Amino acid sequence: MNTLLENKRIRLRAMEPEDLEVLYLWENDPRHWKVSQTLIPFSKFTLKQFIKQSTNDLYTTRQFRLMIIRRNDDHPLGAIDLFDFDPYHKRGGVGILIHDENDRNKGYASEALQLFKEYCFGHLKLHQLYCHIATDNQASLRLFTGNGFTVIGEKKEWLFNGNGYSSEWMLQCINPSS
C-alpha cells in the first residue's frame, strides 16, 4: 500500500472520464433515488460536467466524490461523497453507495468509510463528519454506527415517501485528534 486511500482490498480514487457509463447507470437506478432524494434522471451531459468539475478546488465546489474500486480487478463497487464541505467549521457530510447488491455486506462500505474518515480527518483536518439516514435504513445505520458515528438526533416526519412521511437520523463523528 502506498497511499492512505487504499488497503488490501479496495482503493478510493478520483472520478475519471471513463466512469461516465457506470455513473450514468448508478445515478439513474430508481432503487437509489429514495436514499439520494433524486427526483429526475441524470443526463450523460450533466454527469460529464460533474466529472469535469470534480477536478475543481474543494473550497470552490464544497464537495467531491471518490470511486470505490476493488483492487484485485479494478471493478468499481460504488462511490463515497463529501458534501456541504464547510472549511470554516471544518466539517462535511458523507454519503456512500455500494451499487451491486452482491457486493454489499462484504465489508467494502465499512473499509471505504474508514479510509475516507482517515483522509478527511488526517489530510483535510476536518473536525467532524456527519450523515443523514432514514430511520428505516438499518443497514446504513449499522454501517455508520459501526464506524464511529453517533446518532445525535431525529428529524421527525422529515422525508416524504410518496404515501406519507418518515423520520431521519442525524449522525456525527468527531475527529478524535482535534
Helix content: 25-40%
Number of strands: 7
Oligomeric grouping of the chains: single chain
* Sheet having the most strands: 7 strands, mixed
Key features of this structure:
178 residues, alpha+beta, seven-stranded mixed sheet
Explain what the structure shows.
- With 178 residues, the chain is of the alpha+beta class.
- The protein is 30% helix and 34% strand.
- It has six helices and seven strands; from the N terminus they run βααααβββαβαββ.
- The protein has helices spanning 20-27, 30-36, 44-53, 58-61, 108-123, 138-145; strands at residues 10-14, 64-70, 75-86, 91-98, 128-134, 150-160, 165-174.
- A seven-stranded mixed β-sheet has the order 1-2-3-4-5-7-6.
- Helix 5 (108-123) links the parallel strand 4 (91-98) and strand 5.
- Helix 1 crosses helix 3.
- The longest helix has 16 residues, at 108-123.
- The mean pLDDT is 91.
